[in-house]
User: Fold this.
Amino acid sequence: MKTLYCRSLLAISCFMLLLLMAACNSSSANDTAGEGSANDYPTKDIEFVVGYNPGGGYSDYAQALAPFIEKHLPNDVNVLVRHMPGAGSVTAANFVQNAKPDGYVIGIYNVNGLAPTQVSQNVAYDLRTVSWLGRVSADNNIALVSESSPYNSIEDLDTNKKYVVSTKGLQSQDTIAGAVTLSELGIDWEPLNHQGTGEAALSVIRGDADIIWSSYESVYQYVASGDLKPLIFYGDEHHPDFPDVPIPSDIGLSPEINEGFNAQRLIGAPPELPEDIRATLEEAIKNAIEDPEFHEQMERMERTVFYLDAEGSAEIAESALSGFTKFQSIVDELYSQQ
Assistant:
């Protein structure tokens, strides 16, 4: 009788141990699934953060790209665009930097707007540690004057005159590009600030300001209409539509200026993103940007696409930080006046 009792206790103990092990294994599996492991990522919606209000260029790219990222991810999940404007996209960059690195938060970065802020200010984000996933587009800077202006080249500007520059804030990458260029040319200037590109361009057309720096895509309509004419184009080669307009190195400016201030729209995720999840996102983003239907949509929106892989994107971020560091005294002065 005693033996039978002992055997019953042993059987019950074994049964309880098996139940406990099963519960632990189930909990572990659920925890792994919730974190988005390599085997099942993604299992829930992905947040695509934009540091500006709806209606601008960064919003347009994110809104257009999100459905194509969904299309090329391995599982049926949504990519939801979330606008988080504030401090020239610093608020959004800080948010992504501090998000959990599980693949469910990504962002589109204005790298050449964020780089000078990082160089000059104390910020929570660090472009060197972002898990870069690829570039969706790049946009060259350009300096323009009114069609009626007597100047036909940046070299025509008079070093004995002070010029009014139409700006969109002293911390914008366009203003910094202009400030560095004019500094190297020994030309004095003062800003006339505006809320947006359209208002800034119109002030030059009206004659309220002498010159404007902007991304070419943002002012293309004014060049096409003949209201503005270019004085200098920022790139490693001349623009095919105006081959006689110089690039910075043509007139003896620092070679870093050629492309150092151009807009670079990169997509990134929080630091230390696991390699397996990173690879899944990289592939989905690459396939989305190279999707013919996405290109067709961008053409209808009159937006350009210049894909670059994750490694190249990381190099761009590093180059931007190095370039703005070289001209930090100018950046610091602009930030102190804001």
Notes: The longest strand covers residues 131-139. The radius of gyration is 26 Å. The longest helix spans residues 2-35.
